[in-house]
Amino acid sequence: MARGGPPGWPRDLPPRGTVEFDERVVGWLLDRAPADMRRSTLRQYPIALGRVVAHVVAGELGGIRSAYSTARSDLGAHLAADELATVQAALEAEGARLLAVQREVALVEEALAVRARTPGIKG
To answer: pTM of the prediction?
Structure first.
């Protein structure tokens, strides 16, 4: 548990219900989004930004899984067995990282949904 958040809560984001969370959540989400999203009007709607980032992370995870599952057939003629093993290990590590990010984004989305349901608070 990080800084009072639930298990899996991002270490670099204060827990929901704090002023620090409100100040940092958009930047945190943008750090996990494509760079061009920094100019998007979605910055004004954290709950919508969170949903988009969840889709982006899911797409990245799907891409990594596909790359891993096809690495031997796609790269086997171009890489030695030990090189292919290194590539697959890197893809496996990236997949694990993305699974953790996916969990974090889901928790942040949940926090934003609670915030949006609270009267007088913009979500």
So the answer is: 0.87
